């Protein structure tokens, strides 16, 4: 239990800005805080165990995001093996790949697990999955009738948007105003609030390939869009995956200004089976 080591909740309660911040994990949460604290003036180092950040996103987008963040002053250490995190006076010593660096604070951003261990659920009929998530049916109802589990705790995608959609399902079930269920869930757009914002809906090219689709992948740099020049913000790239035969959109990644709004148009096209033209 080392002081000055935080999760993504605890670090929001800091009263002073750390001059040097280490972030362990190069996923969505880690990068959002890296961008935030870098803008606030902290020297930020991100340690990522894999060979790339944002491993679930399009490779071209992940590389571009890393480039932009490095230009903003964020340092990345990829292939990082964390060997020790220990107190060093009023600071924290982080040993990675045999080398030790000193930081004012450390953020653990390696993902979250359902916080069910201390709930005493073993004394109830509520069943858990192997990863500790609460087992639910198509309406987010647990194995105890009348008890529901929504959000990260039921093992679904860890996004606010997914939790909100879980709520819609439970609300409809409890009030009798709807029959919407998990099996009817369509594509939920998500956003990572780095600069520029990274938004995605549906499949990436890798996922489409693994699913066996015969697809077309189109990329468009933001700098090629007239609106980007009007906004004087040329950073980013848009990528869309389309089924070759039906021309239906399988997925899209929008990395650019206002992507958190534009992605909803793509989601609408996917949900309503509007072909790509």
TrEMBL record:
Named cofactor requirement(s): FAD
UniProt-listed InterPro entries: FAD/NAD-bd_sf (IPR036188), FAD/NAD-binding_dom (IPR023753), FAD/NAD-linked_Rdtase_dimer_sf (IPR016156), Pyr_nucl-diS_OxRdtase_dimer (IPR004099)
Cross-referenced Gene3D superfamilies: 3.30.390.30, FAD/NAD(P)-binding domain
Domain Pyridine nucleotide-disulphide oxidoreductase dimerisation: 188-274
Protein name: FAD-dependent oxidoreductase
UniProt keyword annotations, A-Z: FAD, Flavoprotein
GO molecular function: flavin adenine dinucleotide binding; NAD(P)H dehydrogenase (quinone) activity
FAD/NAD(P)-binding domain span: 4-163
Pfam families assigned to the protein according to its UniProt record, in alphabetical order: Pyr_redox_2, Pyr_redox_dim
């Amino acid at each position: 239990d080392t002081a000055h080591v935080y999760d993504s909740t605890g670090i929001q309660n800091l009263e002073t800005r750390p001059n040097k911040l280490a972030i362990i994990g190069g996923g969505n949460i880690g990068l959002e805080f890296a961008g935030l604290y870098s803008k606030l003036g902290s020297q930020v180092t991100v340690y990522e165990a894999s060979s790339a950040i944002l491993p679930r996103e399009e490779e071209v987008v992940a590389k571009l995001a890393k480039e932009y963040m490095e230009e903003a002053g964020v340092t990345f250490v990829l292939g990082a093996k964390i060997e020790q995190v220990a107190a060093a006076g009023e600071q924290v010593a982080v040993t990675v790949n045999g080398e030790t660096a000193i930081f004012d604070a450390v953020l653990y951003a390696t993902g979250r697990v359902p916080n069910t261990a201390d709930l005493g659920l073993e004394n109830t009929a509520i069943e858990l999955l192997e990863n500790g998530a609460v087992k639910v049916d198509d309406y987010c109802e647990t194995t105890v009738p009348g008890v529901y589990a929504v959000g990260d705790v039921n093992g679904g995608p860890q996004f606010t948007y997914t939790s909100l959609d879980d709520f819609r399902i439970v609300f409809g079930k409890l009030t009798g105003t709807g029959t919407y269920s998990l099996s009817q869930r369509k594509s939920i757009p998500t956003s990572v609030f780095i600069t520029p914002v990274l938004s995605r809906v549906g499949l990436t090219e890798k996922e489409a390939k693994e699913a066996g689709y015969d697809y077309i992948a189109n990329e468009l740099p933001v700098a090629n869009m007239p609106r980007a020049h009007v906004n004087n913000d040329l950073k980013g790239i848009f990528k869309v995956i389309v089924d070759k035969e039906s021309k239906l959109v399988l997925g899209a990644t929008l990395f650019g200004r206002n992507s958190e709004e534009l992605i909803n148009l793509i989601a609408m096209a996917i949900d309503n089976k509007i072909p790509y033209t």
